[in-house]
Amino acid sequence: xxxxxxxxxxRRLAQGSKLWKGIHVYLAEAQTPVLGGDRKEEDHLDKxxxxxxxxxxxxxxxxxxYPLDRFNAFxxxxxAIVITLLVLELPVxxxxxxxLPALAESWPxxxxxxxxxxxxxxxxxxxxxxTKYMRRGDVVSFRLNLVLLLFISLLPFSTHLMVxxxxxxxxxxxxxxxxxxxxxxSALITALLYYAVRDRHLVVSDVADDRVRRAxxxxxxxxxxxxxxxxxxxxxxxxxxxxxxVVAVGFLIQPLIGMWRKH
Length: 263
Known about the structure:
By secondary structure, the protein is mostly helical. The chain has one domain. The chain has helices at 4-30, 54-62, 69-88, 99-105, 107-133, 139-153, 155-165, 171-198, 209-233, 237-262, and strands at 43-45, 51-53.
């Protein structure tokens, strides 16, 4: 029969061996790199397929840059709400009135809706075209976008002001205020475009220069037209409304002209 004291010694030696083995494993794991420790600089692809280094990704995560998901979502929401508010301003003839004569009397409201819809649609398409080639945003671009949305959201007010006073004595002021609203929208989307592509730090690397120049020409043309309409509105508000109408009609039939050219 074995000595009980000898068995106790052997059991303690086995327990000590297991303890030493656990300490050895712990020390080995502590020497391996963990998340948040020293990392090699690696390249990865962003959402647009553009190669971005890990240091660049860290800069984006720490606040120097922002992703575009909320930039686009908030902007699209404002555009949608503005167009909804514009259509809610259209008058509905009462049941006691004849429909066609009542609608004919409300021609300023329908004309104002068509003009504003065309201009909002044009700004929205320019905005969508710009963000298509942006891969991220920063503080300046986000704030420029907020100021742009400020004037976009004012459009239902300025439209209602114009259509209410277009036949009144103060029509020049009302039409000029409406034109100033359109001018600020065009100026701010142009400023946002200029800032985004100035140093190419917000856009993908393969944006063609001729595409950027064409976008500049289009936006400058809208700025010139709206600035001219403001001046005209002060002396001939009906003519200024006619200028807005021509621009709106041109925007609305532009897709048809494109389809005709393709065929």
